[in-house]
Every structure is written in structure tokens, then in C-alpha cells.
TrEMBL record:
UniProt-recorded name of the protein: MULE transposase domain-containing protein
Length: 419
């Protein structure tokens, strides 16, 4: 007869495997029976007096042990607010930057808090790859709960593109229970005012969020205000969604398949023409094309008003004619979207419904360590650098230059230097 509770030796075995850093997938591979064992069990299943111990172990057994061990290392106090504050002290002592504010002024009656964290290595990466370049800012949710089980929490990240690996690095984190601009302002101002960081980026990529845009404008003084760029993908998705509501074809049919086809064709034309406008070569050409675009779509007043009100006033954030500074080929938030997906699928998995201190442990003790190892592998020549489309195009152009033409580009100065 099968025992209802796992024997002590099995529980100890699970504990040891979890202590080795194995998750459910790795442990399941160790427990998998071969075909011969399965056949013997299938033939004698009615006469079994004792089940193999490998069949006793279930996913929740591993989850419970994982959670137990995680809480032991991640929970620095019974109260989660106090636990976060102790994490902040530890990070500061290790040369990083951390701050916790529990009384951020937002809506009346809302107790809004925010906590920002950055290790000493992240600080180096932010200053090395983001200070004079472009950073991506975005948030994700469903990664943990707050001080109470029912409290929603958003994880904000600043991601920079490493010039060493060519990949994105999460260089700073902020956890908050508020959906307002004020927590973001607190975070960005903390990064700007900290004497060890003094972070004022040249450009910030966001996903068209009015909350994030407002926060950036409040966090930096006018003379140090970063250029804000909208993510192409998010912008075009928002525009595409609205085109389905506001653009109608010129078909005389009032209903049916032909009317639907005419609407879809008009919507496609509106989107494609907008992309042409988006890629206008200079500002004068943009203004000319914008006027023509509005005239063309005067037949759809709702669409014309939408473009005129929502997008043209913010042309500098999405039109190529205004992207004159080097942005390292970063035109979307793909680096930060990839980071959020990796965090949830690779690192958190089953542990996505834990407290903020458990999430912080994953961020600082696993995610950041893996990014550090990736940087080292490229530096040591064990891994190749990832190239963006802009990098690949530049390399292709450079490879096409003949040796004689390349030699002609080299200038020998009088002081024997080469430029």
C-alpha cells in the first residue's frame, strides 16, 4: 500500500537537490523511470505492495521545498516592509545604491510606497553603457505581491545595451504598489541625485506611456531633460488598433464582406502611409508629408483628428527626422521586453506569487549574476557578441570596402599618429 506522506528519506533527498540549485525540471529528469521499469510496473500494478519512491514525488513537493529554502534566504524580517529595508541596508554596505520610501504622495487615501535597488556592478553597467547613450524604461506586473498578499506590485527596470555583449542588461530596479508617476519620479531622482551615480541619460526609450513620460519630465530639470523616444512597436500597435475603429473604406456597400474588405484595405493604406511619414528623411519633408497625410484622410474625420491630436504634437519622439543623436540602433523596447519574459519564464516560474523580498532575491542573486557571467564569457572570447540590425548593416558595409579604398581612408599625421 502506498504511503500517503513522503518518507523522511525522500523529503531529505528533495531538500538536498533543491540546495544544489535544481528546480522542478531538473529534479523531474532525475526521477524519470526508464521503459523497462515502466513495463514491469504496468504488468504488476495490481499486486504492488510498495510504489517506487520516484513516483511519489510531485511538483508541489518540490515547490514547497523551494519556497521554504527561498524564504529562509530572502526574508530578512517577518514584516516585508522591514525585510525590504534590511535588503536596502545590505546593498548600500556592498557598494550599491538602494532607497525605500513608504509615504509617496499620490491619490488621497492611497498608501503608496516604492523601493529602488542597484548593485555596485549594475551601477558600473549603467554608467558605462547608459550614461551617454540610450536606456529603456518599462514595467511589468504579476511577479510578486506587496506587503500584503492582495497588494499588486509593479517591477520597473532600466535596461541598457551592453557594448560588450550586444545584449540588454537590467541596470536598475524599482518596486512599487502605485500606478502613478510619483514612484517613477522618486526612482529617477534618486539615481540623479546620488553622488555615486549622478545618472542623467541622453535618451530614454519608453512604450508611449503618458505616466512614464510625465515622470521623466518631472524628474529632470529642463536643462538636463533626456530626449524621450517612443518604442516603434508599441506606437504602431496603438495606431493600428485605433485605425480599426476610426478608418472606413469608400465602398458603397453598407454591410457584408465587401464592406469589410474595403475597410481593411483603407486601414492598411492608413498604416502604411503613416510608416512612410514616420521615415521622412528630414523635418521639412516630414511637415510636407504630414500636411498631405491629413488632407488625404480628411474623409475619415475621427482618424484625422486622432493623428492630429495624439501623434503629431509628439513627432520628435517617434519620427526618424528628429532622431539625429546616435541611439545604437535601438528603436524598440525589445531588450526590456526580452528581459521581462526571461525573468518570468526562466527565473521565477512557479515562484511568481511570492513576496517582494523573494523577487528581490531572484533579481540580485540569480539574474544579475548570470548577466555578469555573460559579460565575462564575451570578454574571455568564450561567447560571441550579439549584433543588432544596425550593427549587421554597418559590418556588411565595412566588409564591402576594398583593401585599397580602406588604405586611402587612413591618414598619417605629422606626430606619427594614425587617424
Amino acid at each position: 500500500m502506498a504511503e500517503s506522506r513522503l518518507p523522511a528519506r525522500v523529503r531529505h533527498w528533495i531538500r538536498d537537490r533543491v540546495s544544489e540549485g535544481r528546480d522542478w525540471k531538473a529534479i523531474r529528469n532525475l526521477l524519470r523511470l526508464d521503459e523497462g521499469d515502466l513495463e514491469r510496473l504496468e504488468k504488476g500494478v495490481d499486486g504492488l505492495e510498495m510504489l517506487p519512491e520516484a513516483l511519489r514525488v510531485k511538483r508541489m513537493d518540490v515547490y514547497n521545498e523551494l519556497r521554504k529554502q527561498l524564504l529562509k534566504v530572502a526574508r530578512k524580517a517577518t514584516d516585508r516592509k522591514e525585510s525590504l529595508q534590511k535588503w536596502a541596508v545590505e546593498i548600500e554596505e556592498e557598494g550599491g545604491m538602494a532607497a525605500v520610501k513608504t509615504d509617496i504622495p499620490c491619490a488621497v487615501g492611497e498608501a503608496t510606497w516604492a523601493a529602488c535597488f542597484m548593485t555596485s556592478w549594475q551601477k558600473q553597467m549603467l554608467l558605462m553603457h547608459g550614461h551617454d547613450s540610450i536606456v529603456s524604461l518599462d514595467a511589468t506586473h504579476n511577479t510578486c505581491f506587496g506587503f500584503e498578499h492582495k497588494e499588486k506590485v509593479w517591477l520597473y527596470s532600466l535596461v541598457v545595451r551592453s557594448s560588450i555583449t550586444g545584449r540588454g542588461i537590467p541596470a536598475a530596479f524599482m518596486l512599487t504598489n502605485g500606478e502613478h508617476a510619483q514612484p517613477i519620479v522618486f526612482w529617477l531622482q534618486a539615481l540623479r541625485r546620488d553622488p555615486r551615480v549622478r545618472f542623467i541619460p541622453k535618451q530614454i526609450m519608453i512604450d508611449c506611456s503618458s505616466t512614464e513620460l510625465s515622470a521623466i519630465r518631472m524628474a529632470y530639470p529642463p536643462d538636463n531633460l533626456p530626449t524621450v523616444l517612443f518604442c516603434d512597436w508599441h506606437m504602431l500597435k496603438a495606431m493600428s488598433d485605433q485605425s480599426k475603429k476610426k478608418v472606413r473604406g469608400h465602398s458603397q456597400h453598407t454591410r457584408g464582406a465587401q464592406k469589410i474588405a474595403a475597410n481593411q484595405l483603407a486601414q492598411k493604406e492608413a498604416r502604411e502611409s503613416f510608416i512612410v511619414l514616420m521615415n521622412a528623411p528630414d523635418q521639412a519633408a516630414f511637415e510636407t508629408q504630414a500636411a498631405a497625410y491629413l488632407q488625404t484622410w480628411s474623409c475619415c474625420p475621427a482618424w484625422q483628428a486622432y493623428i492630429q491630436k495624439e501623434w503629431l504634437p509628439q513627432r520628435a519622439m517617434w519620427a526618424r527626422a528628429w532622431r539625429t543623436m546616435s541611439h545604437r540602433g535601438v528603436d524598440t523596447n525589445n531588450f526590456i521586453e526580452s528581459w521581462h519574459n526571461q525573468l518570468k519564464s526562466v527565473y521565477l516560474g512557479l515562484m511568481r506569487k511570492q513576496g517582494v523580498d523573494v523577487l528581490l532575491w531572484f533579481l540580485l542573486k540569480q539574474c544579475i549574476q548570470d548577466h555578469r557571467a555573460s559579460e565575462l564569457r564575451v570578454c574571455l572570447g568564450l561567447q560571441s557578441c550579439a549584433l543588432s540590425k544596425a550593427d549587421r548593416d554597418a559590418k556588411k558595409h565595412a566588409d564591402a570596402v576594398t583593401f585599397s579604398n580602406a588604405q586611402a581612408l587612413v591618414v598619417h599625421d605629422t606626430d606619427d599618429s594614425i587617424t
